[in-house]
Amino acid sequence: MLPRKSIIPEEFGLPGLVSRMPRKPVFKDRVNKARFIAKNGSCNLAHKNIREQGRFLQDVFTTLVDLKWRFTLVIFTTTFVSSWLLFAMSWWLVAFAHGDLDPERQNLSHCVTDVKSFTSAFLFSIEVQVTIGFGGRMITEQCLAAILVLILQNIVGLIINAIMLGCIFMKTAQSNRRAETLIFSRHAVIAVRNNRLCFMIRIGDLRKSMIIGATVRLQVVRKTTTPEGELIPIHQIDVQTESAVASNSLFLLAPLIICHVIDKSSPLYDLSAMELQCSDLEVIVILEGVVETTGITTQARTSYVSDEIQWGHRFVPIVTEEEGVYSVDYSKFGNTVRVTTPDCSARELDEKPFILIQTLQKSELSHQNSLRKRNSMRRNNSMRKSAGSSASLRRNNSGVVSPKVQFFTPSDGGQNLNAVT
């Protein structure tokens, strides 16, 4: 049996009409990828399959400084106890070789007085190395070997003290401790500044001691593919800032807004507001400088992914002058306010300058309308207040009793009294 043909042609049916309808571009959701730099500045990078582990032992001091505190304290304690035990064994052997441990030779000369067992040798080893010296045990001039052991233990003890105490000092005075008081705004913003589309962040220093020669570097990290087909998972692109163009360093006395003009050389040149939300880029901010009090170079880092970049926002002012002193309100450090900004990319703004002009004109008109509404509301409120005050005055006047006035008029038959109120 042959299939029955439809009366309506196929090109005018529902499938045909749907296939010919224009479709809007669909932006895929951005895949959540791992951050290269965390918000606190730590690098999200794991080193695996390192075959040459001996390279870390060639730089023992740096390895000890990089270790966690619990491992450092364990190594610190183990090193001193091991050295005391090692030289305690040496002192016990010296006493044993000289015969000081023999009870029959108590009245003869000894290499070390009052060293009669391994425990007393261990206590003498501690006294020698940490220079406690209680006075009960002491070395004599009878044994050359004892004198050599004393010299060797003093030298080894000084080396261990220098390494261990230096390691503890470097861990407590590490540069990343100073970076804890260097703060960044939680969000970055993109807005129009000086008629150019700009990427901006805010940085600040919580301490009064300054960072000398502070510099800020911006890098964009993204996954790219070269024309030859090579995949670069972490492609770092340097981003120029206005501060780097104007001078070599920043005067970080108060919080500053670091501005990057999105021009033709910027990796953000082709990104619009919609494309930014779908991109997988990450902007890394690196703040470097010398600590004024210690002279140690410090570095603070953070990063901003596309979800943390606010398009069409601007940072609110936080520096005010109060009684001749500039005051910084850090409670508003990361606060932003929405401003009128074109949603197109910087390339489209360069190719079509009228977009920016129209946007600025609309912003000016909306600002003027808001001012008119505000002024009209103020006038209405003042008129209501004046009307209310006049009404209350009339109510108060209505409650006042008018006095009676009497007029006396002369008449022929006598005097009539007329009272007029």
UniProtKB/TrEMBL annotation:
<dbReference type="InterPro" id="IPR014756">
    <property type="entry name" value="Ig_E-set"/>
</dbReference>
<feature type="domain" description="Potassium channel inwardly rectifying transmembrane">
    <location>
        <begin position="37"/>
        <end position="174"/>
    </location>
</feature>
<feature type="domain" description="Inward rectifier potassium channel C-terminal">
    <location>
        <begin position="182"/>
        <end position="352"/>
    </location>
</feature>
<keyword id="KW-0597">Phosphoprotein</keyword>
<comment type="similarity">
    <text>Belongs to the inward rectifier-type potassium channel (TC 1.A.2.1) family.</text>
</comment>
<dbReference type="Pfam" id="PF01007">
    <property type="entry name" value="IRK"/>
</dbReference>
<dbReference type="InterPro" id="IPR003278">
    <property type="entry name" value="K_chnl_inward-rec_Kir6.1"/>
</dbReference>
<dbReference type="InterPro" id="IPR016449">
    <property type="entry name" value="K_chnl_inward-rec_Kir"/>
</dbReference>
<protein>
    <submittedName>
        <fullName>ATP-sensitive inward rectifier potassium channel 8</fullName>
    </submittedName>
</protein>
<keyword id="KW-0633">Potassium transport</keyword>
<keyword id="KW-1133">Transmembrane helix</keyword>
<dbReference type="GO" id="GO:1990573">
    <property type="term" value="P:potassium ion import across plasma membrane"/>
</dbReference>
<feature type="site" description="Role in the control of polyamine-mediated channel gating and in the blocking by intracellular magnesium">
    <location>
        <position position="161"/>
    </location>
</feature>
<dbReference type="Pfam" id="PF17655">
    <property type="entry name" value="IRK_C"/>
</dbReference>
<feature type="transmembrane region" description="Helical">
    <location>
        <begin position="71"/>
        <end position="94"/>
    </location>
</feature>
<feature type="region of interest" description="Disordered">
    <location>
        <begin position="402"/>
        <end position="421"/>
    </location>
</feature>
<dbReference type="GO" id="GO:0034765">
    <property type="term" value="P:regulation of monoatomic ion transmembrane transport"/>
</dbReference>
<dbReference type="GO" id="GO:0015272">
    <property type="term" value="F:ATP-activated inward rectifier potassium channel activity"/>
</dbReference>
<feature type="compositionally biased region" description="Polar residues">
    <location>
        <begin position="387"/>
        <end position="397"/>
    </location>
</feature>
<keyword id="KW-0407">Ion channel</keyword>
<feature type="region of interest" description="Disordered">
    <location>
        <begin position="366"/>
        <end position="397"/>
    </location>
</feature>
<dbReference type="GO" id="GO:0034702">
    <property type="term" value="C:monoatomic ion channel complex"/>
</dbReference>
<dbReference type="InterPro" id="IPR041647">
    <property type="entry name" value="IRK_C"/>
</dbReference>
<keyword id="KW-0472">Membrane</keyword>
<keyword id="KW-0812">Transmembrane</keyword>
<feature type="transmembrane region" description="Helical">
    <location>
        <begin position="144"/>
        <end position="169"/>
    </location>
</feature>
<feature type="compositionally biased region" description="Polar residues">
    <location>
        <begin position="408"/>
        <end position="421"/>
    </location>
</feature>
<keyword id="KW-0406">Ion transport</keyword>
<keyword id="KW-0851">Voltage-gated channel</keyword>
<dbReference type="InterPro" id="IPR040445">
    <property type="entry name" value="Kir_TM"/>
</dbReference>
<dbReference type="InterPro" id="IPR013518">
    <property type="entry name" value="K_chnl_inward-rec_Kir_cyto"/>
</dbReference>
<dbReference type="GO" id="GO:0005886">
    <property type="term" value="C:plasma membrane"/>
</dbReference>
<keyword id="KW-0630">Potassium</keyword>
<dbReference type="GO" id="GO:0007399">
    <property type="term" value="P:nervous system development"/>
</dbReference>
<keyword id="KW-0813">Transport</keyword>
